[in-house]
Recover the amino acids of this structure.
Protein backbone atom coordinates (compact mmCIF):
# COMPACT_ATOMS: atom_id res chain seq x y z
CA UNK A 1 0.00 0.00 0.00
CA UNK A 2 2.75 2.45 0.92
CA UNK A 3 4.42 1.52 -2.36
CA UNK A 4 1.35 2.53 -4.37
CA UNK A 5 0.89 5.81 -2.45
CA UNK A 6 4.60 6.68 -2.74
CA UNK A 7 4.53 5.87 -6.47
CA UNK A 8 1.42 8.00 -7.01
CA UNK A 9 2.99 10.96 -5.20
CA UNK A 10 6.18 10.60 -7.23
CA UNK A 11 4.27 10.33 -10.51
CA UNK A 12 2.27 13.47 -9.73
CA UNK A 13 5.40 15.45 -8.77
CA UNK A 14 7.44 14.28 -11.77
CA UNK A 15 4.57 14.88 -14.18
CA UNK A 16 3.89 18.40 -12.89
CA UNK A 17 7.55 19.39 -12.90
CA UNK A 18 8.18 17.82 -16.31
CA UNK A 19 5.21 19.57 -17.95
CA UNK A 20 6.16 22.93 -16.45
CA UNK A 21 9.73 22.42 -17.61
CA UNK A 22 8.55 21.69 -21.15
CA UNK A 23 6.43 24.84 -21.22
CA UNK A 24 9.14 27.07 -19.77
CA UNK A 25 11.96 25.48 -21.77
CA UNK A 26 10.39 27.08 -24.81
CA UNK A 27 10.36 30.47 -23.04
CA UNK A 28 14.02 30.00 -22.07
CA UNK A 29 14.89 29.04 -25.64
CA UNK A 30 13.20 32.13 -27.07
CA UNK A 31 14.86 34.38 -24.49
CA UNK A 32 18.36 32.92 -24.95
CA UNK A 33 18.09 32.99 -28.76
CA UNK A 34 16.87 36.57 -28.58
CA UNK A 35 19.78 37.68 -26.44
CA UNK A 36 22.26 35.86 -28.71
CA UNK A 37 20.82 37.86 -31.60
CA UNK A 38 20.67 41.17 -29.62
CA UNK A 39 16.88 41.15 -29.30
CA UNK A 40 14.76 41.13 -26.14
CA UNK A 41 12.51 38.13 -26.86
CA UNK A 42 9.03 37.74 -25.31
CA UNK A 43 8.38 40.71 -23.04
CA UNK A 44 4.69 41.60 -23.18
CA UNK A 45 2.89 38.85 -21.22
CA UNK A 46 3.86 39.13 -17.58
CA UNK A 47 7.20 40.43 -16.24
CA UNK A 48 9.97 39.58 -18.73
CA UNK A 49 7.40 37.56 -20.69
CA UNK A 50 7.16 34.96 -17.91
CA UNK A 51 3.48 34.26 -18.63
CA UNK A 52 4.21 33.65 -22.34
CA UNK A 53 4.10 29.81 -22.11
CA UNK A 54 0.62 30.01 -20.56
CA UNK A 55 -0.54 32.32 -23.33
CA UNK A 56 0.95 29.95 -25.94
CA UNK A 57 -0.84 26.94 -24.45
CA UNK A 58 -4.16 28.84 -24.48
CA UNK A 59 -3.57 29.90 -28.08
CA UNK A 60 -2.74 26.37 -29.22
CA UNK A 61 -5.73 24.88 -27.39
CA UNK A 62 -8.27 27.32 -28.81
CA UNK A 63 -7.01 27.38 -32.40
CA UNK A 64 -9.12 25.72 -35.08
CA UNK A 65 -8.20 22.08 -35.51
CA UNK A 66 -7.91 21.57 -39.27
CA UNK A 67 -8.20 18.13 -40.82
CA UNK A 68 -7.11 18.42 -44.47
CA UNK A 69 -9.33 16.35 -46.81
CA UNK A 70 -6.45 14.75 -48.71
CA UNK A 71 -4.65 13.13 -45.77
CA UNK A 72 -4.68 9.47 -44.76
CA UNK A 73 -6.93 10.13 -41.80
CA UNK A 74 -6.07 7.25 -39.44
CA UNK A 75 -2.29 7.62 -39.66
CA UNK A 76 -2.53 11.40 -39.73
CA UNK A 77 -4.24 11.35 -36.34
CA UNK A 78 -2.09 8.51 -34.99
CA UNK A 79 1.29 10.15 -35.70
CA UNK A 80 1.22 13.03 -33.15
CA UNK A 81 -0.17 10.60 -30.57
CA UNK A 82 2.78 8.20 -31.09
CA UNK A 83 5.27 11.06 -31.04
CA UNK A 84 4.09 12.62 -27.79
CA UNK A 85 3.44 9.35 -25.91
CA UNK A 86 6.85 7.90 -26.67
CA UNK A 87 8.56 11.20 -25.85
CA UNK A 88 6.87 11.49 -22.45
CA UNK A 89 7.31 7.83 -21.44
CA UNK A 90 11.10 7.89 -21.03
CA UNK A 91 11.09 10.23 -18.02
CA UNK A 92 9.52 7.46 -15.92
CA UNK A 93 12.82 5.59 -15.50
CA UNK A 94 15.15 8.57 -14.99
CA UNK A 95 16.45 8.79 -11.40
CA UNK A 96 16.78 12.29 -9.96
CA UNK A 97 18.49 11.52 -6.67
CA UNK A 98 19.63 8.82 -4.25
CA UNK A 99 17.44 6.53 -2.15
CA UNK A 100 15.80 8.55 0.62
CA UNK A 101 13.73 7.89 3.74
CA UNK A 102 10.68 10.14 4.25
CA UNK A 103 8.28 9.53 7.19
CA UNK A 104 9.85 6.12 7.69
CA UNK A 105 9.31 5.04 4.06
CA UNK A 106 12.36 4.16 1.99
CA UNK A 107 11.92 5.17 -1.62
CA UNK A 108 13.97 5.96 -4.71
CA UNK A 109 13.84 9.44 -6.21
CA UNK A 110 12.64 7.89 -9.46
CA UNK A 111 9.29 6.59 -10.68
CA UNK A 112 10.56 3.08 -11.35
CA UNK A 113 13.99 1.46 -11.32
CA UNK A 114 14.18 -0.79 -14.38
CA UNK A 115 17.22 -3.04 -14.43
CA UNK A 116 17.53 -2.68 -18.21
CA UNK A 117 16.99 1.09 -18.04
CA UNK A 118 19.40 2.13 -20.73
CA UNK A 119 18.01 -0.46 -23.16
CA UNK A 120 14.54 0.88 -22.45
CA UNK A 121 15.67 4.36 -23.50
CA UNK A 122 17.21 2.91 -26.68
CA UNK A 123 14.03 0.95 -27.45
CA UNK A 124 11.86 4.04 -27.04
CA UNK A 125 14.28 6.02 -29.21
CA UNK A 126 14.19 3.35 -31.91
CA UNK A 127 10.39 3.30 -32.04
CA UNK A 128 9.87 7.07 -31.83
CA UNK A 129 10.96 7.45 -35.47
CA UNK A 130 7.49 6.27 -36.47
CA UNK A 131 5.82 9.43 -35.17
CA UNK A 132 7.78 11.66 -37.54
CA UNK A 133 7.88 9.19 -40.44
CA UNK A 134 4.13 8.51 -40.33
CA UNK A 135 3.31 12.21 -40.00
CA UNK A 136 5.35 12.90 -43.13
CA UNK A 137 3.85 10.05 -45.11
CA UNK A 138 0.19 10.41 -44.12
CA UNK A 139 0.09 14.17 -44.85
CA UNK A 140 0.11 13.40 -48.58
CA UNK A 141 2.34 16.36 -49.25
CA UNK A 142 5.73 16.16 -50.94
CA UNK A 143 7.46 18.42 -48.43
CA UNK A 144 6.10 16.45 -45.51
CA UNK A 145 7.12 13.18 -47.17
CA UNK A 146 10.64 14.47 -47.75
CA UNK A 147 10.81 15.56 -44.12
CA UNK A 148 9.66 12.15 -42.93
CA UNK A 149 12.12 10.32 -45.19
CA UNK A 150 15.01 12.51 -44.08
CA UNK A 151 14.09 11.99 -40.46
CA UNK A 152 14.05 8.18 -40.75
CA UNK A 153 17.35 8.10 -42.65
CA UNK A 154 18.96 10.48 -40.19
CA UNK A 155 17.75 8.63 -37.13
CA UNK A 156 18.86 5.23 -38.47
CA UNK A 157 22.32 6.65 -39.24
CA UNK A 158 22.85 8.45 -35.96
CA UNK A 159 21.50 5.62 -33.86
CA UNK A 160 24.74 3.70 -34.61
CA UNK A 161 27.25 6.13 -33.03
CA UNK A 162 24.67 6.91 -30.33
CA UNK A 163 24.35 3.27 -29.29
CA UNK A 164 28.06 2.49 -29.63
CA UNK A 165 29.06 5.41 -27.46
CA UNK A 166 26.60 4.42 -24.73
CA UNK A 167 28.37 1.06 -24.40
CA UNK A 168 31.61 2.59 -23.05
CA UNK A 169 30.19 4.03 -19.81
CA UNK A 170 28.29 0.75 -19.40
CA UNK A 171 31.64 -1.08 -19.53
CA UNK A 172 32.96 1.18 -16.78
CA UNK A 173 29.86 0.75 -14.62
CA UNK A 174 29.17 -2.95 -15.34
CA UNK A 175 25.44 -2.20 -15.09
CA UNK A 176 22.40 -1.51 -17.22
CA UNK A 177 20.24 0.17 -14.58
CA UNK A 178 20.48 3.95 -14.32
CA UNK A 179 20.64 3.83 -10.54
CA UNK A 180 23.58 1.43 -10.67
CA UNK A 181 25.39 3.56 -13.25
CA UNK A 182 24.86 6.66 -11.13
CA UNK A 183 26.04 4.93 -7.95
CA UNK A 184 29.19 3.69 -9.70
CA UNK A 185 30.23 7.32 -10.22
CA UNK A 186 30.20 8.27 -6.52
CA UNK A 187 33.41 9.16 -4.71
CA UNK A 188 36.57 11.11 -5.55
CA UNK A 189 40.11 10.46 -6.75
CA UNK A 190 42.73 11.97 -4.39
CA UNK A 191 39.84 13.47 -2.44
CA UNK A 192 38.93 16.13 -5.00
CA UNK A 193 38.59 14.78 -8.58
CA UNK A 194 35.04 13.43 -8.92
CA UNK A 195 34.68 9.90 -10.32
CA UNK A 196 32.21 11.02 -12.98
CA UNK A 197 32.51 8.99 -16.15
CA UNK A 198 34.10 11.87 -18.04
CA UNK A 199 36.96 11.70 -15.48
CA UNK A 200 36.69 7.97 -14.73
CA UNK A 201 39.84 5.86 -14.86
CA UNK A 202 41.10 3.87 -16.80
CA UNK A 203 39.75 5.77 -19.79
CA UNK A 204 37.98 9.11 -19.25
CA UNK A 205 34.89 9.35 -21.45
CA UNK A 206 35.33 12.96 -22.59
CA UNK A 207 35.29 11.98 -26.28
CA UNK A 208 32.39 9.68 -25.59
CA UNK A 209 30.49 12.57 -24.03
CA UNK A 210 31.12 14.83 -27.04
CA UNK A 211 30.07 12.13 -29.52
CA UNK A 212 26.96 11.42 -27.42
CA UNK A 213 25.97 15.08 -27.44
CA UNK A 214 26.47 15.42 -31.22
CA UNK A 215 24.46 12.26 -31.92
CA UNK A 216 21.88 13.53 -29.42
CA UNK A 217 21.43 16.71 -31.48
CA UNK A 218 20.70 14.54 -34.52
CA UNK A 219 18.39 12.15 -32.63
CA UNK A 220 16.24 15.04 -31.38
CA UNK A 221 16.19 16.76 -34.81
CA UNK A 222 17.74 19.93 -33.44
CA UNK A 223 19.83 22.55 -35.23
CA UNK A 224 22.42 21.92 -36.81
CA UNK A 225 20.76 18.62 -37.77
CA UNK A 226 17.15 19.79 -38.11
CA UNK A 227 16.83 18.69 -41.74
CA UNK A 228 13.41 17.01 -41.26
CA UNK A 229 11.92 20.46 -40.68
CA UNK A 230 14.33 22.67 -42.62
CA UNK A 231 12.15 25.77 -43.06
CA UNK A 232 13.80 27.24 -46.13
CA UNK A 233 13.65 23.97 -48.10
CA UNK A 234 10.61 22.06 -46.83
CA UNK A 235 8.12 24.71 -45.58
CA UNK A 236 7.97 23.13 -42.10
CA UNK A 237 8.93 19.56 -42.96
CA UNK A 238 6.97 16.67 -41.52
CA UNK A 239 4.51 18.82 -39.53
CA UNK A 240 3.52 21.19 -42.37
CA UNK A 241 -0.08 19.94 -42.43
CA UNK A 242 -0.59 19.93 -38.67
CA UNK A 243 -2.29 22.69 -36.70
CA UNK A 244 -3.49 23.46 -33.20
CA UNK A 245 -2.97 20.76 -30.55
CA UNK A 246 -1.62 18.21 -33.05
CA UNK A 247 1.18 20.60 -33.89
CA UNK A 248 1.68 21.25 -30.18
CA UNK A 249 2.13 17.48 -29.68
CA UNK A 250 5.11 17.45 -32.07
CA UNK A 251 6.47 20.57 -30.45
CA UNK A 252 6.14 19.06 -26.99
CA UNK A 253 7.72 15.77 -28.07
CA UNK A 254 10.76 17.63 -29.41
CA UNK A 255 11.33 19.36 -26.09
CA UNK A 256 10.60 16.20 -24.11
CA UNK A 257 13.17 14.30 -26.18
CA UNK A 258 15.66 17.07 -25.49
CA UNK A 259 15.10 16.82 -21.75
CA UNK A 260 15.41 13.01 -21.84
CA UNK A 261 18.65 13.08 -23.84
CA UNK A 262 20.23 15.62 -21.48
CA UNK A 263 19.09 13.59 -18.45
CA UNK A 264 20.67 10.46 -19.95
CA UNK A 265 23.88 12.38 -20.73
CA UNK A 266 24.00 13.59 -17.12
CA UNK A 267 23.43 10.08 -15.79
CA UNK A 268 25.93 8.38 -18.09
CA UNK A 269 28.75 10.90 -18.22
CA UNK A 270 28.37 13.73 -15.70
CA UNK A 271 27.99 11.72 -12.53
CA UNK A 272 24.21 12.10 -12.12
CA UNK A 273 23.52 13.84 -8.78
CA UNK A 274 27.03 13.45 -7.38
CA UNK A 275 28.49 16.91 -6.69
CA UNK A 276 31.71 18.37 -8.04
CA UNK A 277 33.19 18.73 -4.53
CA UNK A 278 33.28 16.30 -1.59
CA UNK A 279 30.21 16.30 0.67
CA UNK A 280 30.49 18.82 3.52
CA UNK A 281 31.39 21.71 1.19
CA UNK A 282 29.15 20.82 -1.74
CA UNK A 283 26.01 20.97 0.43
CA UNK A 284 26.38 24.75 0.65
CA UNK A 285 26.98 25.40 -3.06
CA UNK A 286 23.24 25.73 -3.94
CA UNK A 287 22.67 28.27 -1.17
CA UNK A 288 25.74 30.23 -2.25
CA UNK A 289 24.61 30.30 -5.89
CA UNK A 290 21.12 31.53 -4.92
CA UNK A 291 22.66 34.11 -2.56
CA UNK A 292 24.86 35.35 -5.40
CA UNK A 293 21.80 35.66 -7.64
CA UNK A 294 19.98 37.65 -4.94
CA UNK A 295 22.94 40.00 -4.50
CA UNK A 296 23.13 40.49 -8.27
CA UNK A 297 19.42 41.37 -8.38
CA UNK A 298 19.72 43.92 -5.60
CA UNK A 299 22.95 45.33 -7.07
CA UNK A 300 21.11 46.06 -10.32
CA UNK A 301 18.90 48.53 -8.39
CA UNK A 302 21.86 50.83 -7.67
CA UNK A 303 22.41 51.62 -11.35
CA UNK A 304 19.53 53.53 -12.98
CA UNK A 305 17.71 51.17 -15.32
CA UNK A 306 16.00 52.34 -18.51
CA UNK A 307 12.92 50.24 -17.72
CA UNK A 308 10.72 51.41 -14.86
CA UNK A 309 9.30 47.93 -14.33
CA UNK A 310 12.73 46.71 -13.20
CA UNK A 311 12.35 48.71 -9.96
CA UNK A 312 9.61 46.25 -9.00
CA UNK A 313 10.73 43.00 -10.64
CA UNK A 314 14.36 42.95 -9.51
CA UNK A 315 13.60 43.14 -5.74
CA UNK A 316 10.96 40.41 -6.19
CA UNK A 317 13.38 38.10 -8.02
CA UNK A 318 16.01 38.92 -5.37
CA UNK A 319 13.63 37.98 -2.58
CA UNK A 320 12.70 34.72 -4.33
CA UNK A 321 16.40 33.85 -4.67
CA UNK A 322 16.95 34.67 -0.97
CA UNK A 323 14.08 32.39 0.06
CA UNK A 324 15.47 29.59 -2.13
CA UNK A 325 18.92 30.08 -0.58
CA UNK A 326 17.28 29.78 2.85
CA UNK A 327 15.43 26.59 1.92
CA UNK A 328 18.59 24.93 0.56
CA UNK A 329 20.46 25.93 3.75
CA UNK A 330 18.09 24.00 6.10
CA UNK A 331 20.10 20.89 7.07
CA UNK A 332 16.95 18.73 7.49
CA UNK A 333 16.01 19.14 3.81
CA UNK A 334 19.50 18.99 2.35
CA UNK A 335 19.54 15.22 1.84
CA UNK A 336 16.67 15.59 -0.65
CA UNK A 337 17.26 19.01 -2.14
CA UNK A 338 21.03 19.08 -2.68
CA UNK A 339 21.23 16.00 -4.99
CA UNK A 340 18.24 17.32 -6.96
CA UNK A 341 19.94 20.70 -7.29
CA UNK A 342 23.11 19.14 -8.68
CA UNK A 343 21.18 16.94 -11.09
CA UNK A 344 18.95 19.76 -12.31
CA UNK A 345 21.82 22.20 -12.69
CA UNK A 346 23.78 19.73 -14.85
CA UNK A 347 20.72 19.03 -17.00
CA UNK A 348 20.04 22.76 -17.21
CA UNK A 349 23.59 23.45 -18.34
CA UNK A 350 23.31 20.85 -21.12
CA UNK A 351 19.92 22.23 -22.20
CA UNK A 352 21.47 25.68 -22.35
CA UNK A 353 24.20 24.22 -24.59
CA UNK A 354 21.49 22.88 -26.90
CA UNK A 355 19.92 26.33 -27.21
CA UNK A 356 23.30 28.00 -27.52
CA UNK A 357 24.26 25.73 -30.42
CA UNK A 358 20.94 26.51 -32.09
CA UNK A 359 21.71 30.21 -31.86
CA UNK A 360 25.24 29.77 -33.18
CA UNK A 361 25.57 27.09 -35.85
CA UNK A 362 24.07 26.99 -39.35
CA UNK A 363 22.30 23.91 -40.68
CA UNK A 364 24.22 21.04 -42.30
CA UNK A 365 23.61 20.08 -45.92
CA UNK A 366 21.99 16.66 -46.28
CA UNK A 367 25.03 14.87 -47.79
CA UNK A 368 27.29 16.49 -45.19
CA UNK A 369 24.99 15.15 -42.50
CA UNK A 370 25.26 11.58 -43.80
CA UNK A 371 29.01 11.79 -44.44
CA UNK A 372 29.57 13.16 -40.96
CA UNK A 373 27.64 10.29 -39.37
CA UNK A 374 29.17 7.42 -41.33
CA UNK A 375 32.74 8.52 -42.02
CA UNK A 376 33.54 10.48 -38.87
CA UNK A 377 31.21 9.95 -35.93
CA UNK A 378 30.79 6.18 -36.34
CA UNK A 379 34.57 5.39 -36.53
CA UNK A 380 35.22 7.74 -33.60
CA UNK A 381 32.62 5.97 -31.48
CA UNK A 382 34.06 2.60 -32.49
CA UNK A 383 37.63 3.62 -31.55
CA UNK A 384 36.37 5.05 -28.26
CA UNK A 385 34.62 1.77 -27.49
CA UNK A 386 37.64 -0.38 -28.44
CA UNK A 387 40.04 1.70 -26.31
CA UNK A 388 37.70 1.62 -23.33
CA UNK A 389 37.18 -2.13 -23.64
CA UNK A 390 40.93 -2.74 -23.93
CA UNK A 391 41.80 -0.57 -20.92
CA UNK A 392 38.98 -1.99 -18.80
CA UNK A 393 40.19 -5.51 -19.66
CA UNK A 394 43.83 -4.68 -18.77
CA UNK A 395 43.20 -2.85 -15.47
CA UNK B 1 -3.67 -10.95 -11.32
CA UNK B 2 -2.25 -7.95 -13.19
CA UNK B 3 -0.01 -10.40 -15.07
CA UNK B 4 -3.02 -12.29 -16.40
CA UNK B 5 -4.83 -9.12 -17.43
CA UNK B 6 -1.74 -7.83 -19.24
CA UNK B 7 -1.20 -11.21 -20.88
CA UNK B 8 -4.77 -11.35 -22.17
CA UNK B 9 -4.62 -7.78 -23.51
CA UNK B 10 -1.26 -8.29 -25.23
CA UNK B 11 -2.16 -11.69 -26.62
CA UNK B 12 -5.36 -10.26 -28.14
CA UNK B 13 -3.45 -7.30 -29.58
CA UNK B 14 -0.83 -9.65 -31.05
CA UNK B 15 -3.39 -11.92 -32.70
CA UNK B 16 -5.54 -9.05 -34.00
CA UNK B 17 -2.47 -7.29 -35.40
CA UNK B 18 -1.35 -10.57 -36.98
CA UNK B 19 -4.69 -10.96 -38.80
CA UNK B 20 -4.68 -7.28 -39.72
CA UNK B 21 -1.22 -7.69 -41.24
CA UNK B 22 -2.60 -10.16 -43.79
CA UNK B 23 -5.96 -8.49 -44.36
CA UNK B 24 -4.82 -4.90 -44.92
CA UNK B 25 -4.49 -3.73 -48.52
CA UNK B 26 -1.95 -0.98 -47.99
CA UNK B 27 1.71 -1.91 -47.33
CA UNK B 28 2.14 0.77 -44.63
CA UNK B 29 -0.88 -0.56 -42.71
CA UNK B 30 0.58 -4.08 -42.90
CA UNK B 31 3.99 -2.86 -41.72
CA UNK B 32 2.41 -1.05 -38.77
CA UNK B 33 0.41 -4.15 -37.84
CA UNK B 34 3.67 -6.07 -37.82
CA UNK B 35 5.11 -3.47 -35.43
CA UNK B 36 2.05 -4.06 -33.24
CA UNK B 37 2.77 -7.81 -33.22
CA UNK B 38 6.44 -7.24 -32.34
CA UNK B 39 5.64 -4.81 -29.52
CA UNK B 40 3.01 -7.01 -27.92
CA UNK B 41 5.42 -9.97 -28.13
CA UNK B 42 7.98 -7.81 -26.33
CA UNK B 43 5.47 -7.21 -23.52
CA UNK B 44 4.83 -10.98 -23.34
CA UNK B 45 8.59 -11.61 -23.00
CA UNK B 46 8.69 -8.99 -20.26
CA UNK B 47 5.83 -10.71 -18.41
CA UNK B 48 7.78 -13.97 -18.51
CA UNK B 49 10.79 -12.28 -16.90
CA UNK B 50 13.01 -12.02 -19.99
CA UNK B 51 13.57 -8.28 -19.80
CA UNK B 52 16.76 -8.26 -21.88
CA UNK B 53 15.12 -10.21 -24.71
CA UNK B 54 12.07 -7.94 -24.52
CA UNK B 55 14.13 -4.78 -24.93
CA UNK B 56 16.23 -6.34 -27.70
CA UNK B 57 13.01 -7.31 -29.46
CA UNK B 58 11.89 -3.67 -29.34
CA UNK B 59 15.26 -2.25 -30.43
CA UNK B 60 16.03 -4.72 -33.22
CA UNK B 61 12.61 -5.78 -34.57
CA UNK B 62 10.31 -2.99 -33.43
CA UNK B 63 12.92 -0.35 -34.18
CA UNK B 64 15.69 -1.07 -36.66
CA UNK B 65 14.11 -3.71 -38.93
CA UNK B 66 10.65 -2.20 -39.18
CA UNK B 67 11.95 1.35 -39.60
CA UNK B 68 13.81 0.09 -42.68
CA UNK B 69 10.60 -1.58 -43.95
CA UNK B 70 8.60 1.62 -43.47
CA UNK B 71 11.40 3.69 -44.96
CA UNK B 72 11.54 1.58 -48.13
CA UNK B 73 7.73 1.57 -48.50
CA UNK B 74 7.69 5.36 -48.12
CA UNK B 75 10.63 5.81 -50.50
CA UNK B 76 9.03 3.71 -53.24
CA UNK B 77 5.66 5.29 -52.41
CA UNK B 78 3.94 1.93 -52.85
CA UNK B 79 0.16 2.21 -53.25
CA UNK B 80 -2.63 -0.12 -52.17
CA UNK B 81 -2.62 -3.59 -53.61
CA UNK B 82 -5.33 -4.51 -56.05
CA UNK B 83 -7.14 -7.78 -55.43
CA UNK B 84 -6.62 -10.15 -58.36
CA UNK B 85 -9.58 -12.31 -59.41
CA UNK B 86 -9.28 -15.57 -57.52
CA UNK B 87 -9.06 -18.85 -59.35
CA UNK B 88 -11.95 -21.32 -58.94
CA UNK B 89 -9.66 -23.73 -57.09
CA UNK B 90 -8.73 -21.14 -54.45
CA UNK B 91 -12.36 -20.13 -54.02
CA UNK B 92 -13.53 -23.68 -53.36
CA UNK B 93 -10.59 -25.35 -51.60
CA UNK B 94 -8.94 -22.38 -49.86
CA UNK B 95 -10.66 -22.45 -46.48
CA UNK B 96 -10.79 -26.27 -46.06
CA UNK B 97 -7.12 -26.63 -47.01
CA UNK B 98 -6.13 -23.90 -44.53
CA UNK B 99 -8.10 -25.58 -41.74
CA UNK B 100 -6.54 -28.94 -42.58
CA UNK B 101 -3.05 -27.42 -42.52
CA UNK B 102 -3.63 -25.79 -39.12
CA UNK B 103 -5.07 -29.05 -37.79
CA UNK B 104 -2.05 -31.10 -38.95
CA UNK B 105 0.30 -28.48 -37.49
CA UNK B 106 -1.47 -28.54 -34.12
CA UNK B 107 -1.51 -32.35 -34.11
CA UNK B 108 2.21 -32.54 -34.91
CA UNK B 109 3.14 -29.98 -32.26
CA UNK B 110 1.12 -31.82 -29.60
CA UNK B 111 2.33 -35.25 -30.65
CA UNK B 112 6.01 -34.79 -31.54
CA UNK B 113 7.23 -32.09 -29.17
CA UNK B 114 7.83 -33.10 -25.52
CA UNK B 115 5.34 -31.64 -23.04
CA UNK B 116 6.59 -28.21 -21.95
CA UNK B 117 4.77 -28.00 -18.64
CA UNK B 118 2.94 -24.90 -17.43
CA UNK B 119 4.19 -21.34 -17.40
CA UNK B 120 3.89 -19.11 -14.34
CA UNK B 121 4.43 -15.38 -14.60
CA UNK B 122 7.34 -13.99 -12.62
CA UNK B 123 8.62 -17.36 -11.37
CA UNK B 124 11.53 -17.59 -13.80
CA UNK B 125 14.78 -15.73 -13.23
CA UNK B 126 17.57 -15.73 -15.78
CA UNK B 127 16.43 -13.13 -18.25
CA UNK B 128 18.77 -10.37 -17.13
CA UNK B 129 21.59 -9.09 -19.31
CA UNK B 130 24.15 -10.87 -17.08
CA UNK B 131 22.51 -14.27 -17.56
CA UNK B 132 22.09 -13.85 -21.31
CA UNK B 133 25.67 -12.63 -21.69
CA UNK B 134 27.03 -15.55 -19.68
CA UNK B 135 25.12 -18.06 -21.79
CA UNK B 136 26.20 -16.39 -25.04
CA UNK B 137 29.88 -16.56 -24.11
CA UNK B 138 29.90 -20.06 -22.61
CA UNK B 139 27.26 -22.53 -23.75
CA UNK B 140 26.31 -20.91 -27.04
CA UNK B 141 29.68 -19.41 -27.97
CA UNK B 142 30.05 -21.28 -31.27
CA UNK B 143 26.56 -20.50 -32.68
CA UNK B 144 26.96 -16.90 -31.54
CA UNK B 145 30.28 -16.48 -33.37
CA UNK B 146 29.02 -18.27 -36.48
CA UNK B 147 26.01 -15.94 -36.64
CA UNK B 148 28.28 -12.90 -36.23
CA UNK B 149 30.44 -14.06 -39.16
CA UNK B 150 27.30 -14.77 -41.19
CA UNK B 151 25.99 -11.26 -40.61
CA UNK B 152 29.41 -9.83 -41.50
CA UNK B 153 29.31 -11.74 -44.78
CA UNK B 154 25.82 -10.38 -45.45
CA UNK B 155 27.03 -6.82 -44.84
CA UNK B 156 30.01 -7.34 -47.17
CA UNK B 157 27.68 -8.76 -49.81
CA UNK B 158 25.41 -5.71 -49.53
CA UNK B 159 28.39 -3.38 -49.89
CA UNK B 160 29.68 -5.24 -52.98
CA UNK B 161 26.24 -5.18 -54.62
CA UNK B 162 25.77 -1.48 -53.88
CA UNK B 163 29.19 -0.60 -55.34
CA UNK B 164 28.39 -2.41 -58.59
CA UNK B 165 25.24 -0.38 -58.94
CA UNK B 166 27.14 2.93 -58.79
CA UNK B 167 29.78 1.98 -61.39
Amino acid sequence: MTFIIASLIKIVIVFAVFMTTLAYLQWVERKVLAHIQSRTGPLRVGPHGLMQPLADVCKLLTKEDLLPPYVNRFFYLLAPFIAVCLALISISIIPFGPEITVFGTRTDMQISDVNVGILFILAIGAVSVYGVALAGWSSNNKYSLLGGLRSSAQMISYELPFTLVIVSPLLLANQLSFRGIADSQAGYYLGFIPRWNIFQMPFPQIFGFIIFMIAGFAETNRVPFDLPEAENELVAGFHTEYSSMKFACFFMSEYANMVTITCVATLLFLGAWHPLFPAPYSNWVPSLVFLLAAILCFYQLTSPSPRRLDRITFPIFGLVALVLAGIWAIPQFQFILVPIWWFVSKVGLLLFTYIWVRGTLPRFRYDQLMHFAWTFLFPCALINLLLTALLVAIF
Amino acid sequence: MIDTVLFIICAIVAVVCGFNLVLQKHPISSALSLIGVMSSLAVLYLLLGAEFIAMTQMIVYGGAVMVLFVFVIMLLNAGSEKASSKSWFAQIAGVPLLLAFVGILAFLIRGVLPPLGTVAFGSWVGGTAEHVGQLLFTTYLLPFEIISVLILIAILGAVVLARKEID
Observations:
- Chain A touches chain B at residues 75, 114-116, 119-120, 122-123, 125-127, 129-130, 133-134, 136-137, 145, 148-149, 152-153, 155-156, 159, 176 (CB under 8 Å).
